[in-house]
Design goal:
This protein is an alpha+beta fold. The protein is built from one helix and six strands.
Length: 92
């Protein structure tokens, strides 16, 4: 399964949630609302989730194997950094 598109939908540098992202796989399946989170010294991704009646958050969709999560995280953060750089250039 290949990532064929990554869209950075929102960028917010004023909170821990830095961006909201949509990722398309093989031009036929998309996951919306993946979040880029600032975790102190590094950025990471959080998969879309919903709140259960017990107050816990459960992922709606998520990678099953660590290699897929790593592939997604690297691709998303690369696109996020590119979008951030572009936004910075436009502000100049």
């Amino acid at each position: 399964m290949d990532i064929t598109d990554i869209r950075i939908r929102k960028i917010n540098l004023d909170s821990k949630m830095r961006a909201v992202v949509s990722v398309t796989f093989d031009n036929c399946f998309v996951i919306h609302d993946i979040k880029v989170i600032s975790g102190g010294e590094k950025l990471f991704i959080a998969m879309p989730s919903r709140k259960t009646p017990e107050g816990e958050y459960k992922d709606i969709a998520h990678p099953i194997v660590p290699e897929m999560r790593d592939t997604m995280e690297k691709a998303i953060l690369k696109q996020y950094n590119a979008a951030l750089a572009e936004e910075t250039l436009e502000a100049l």
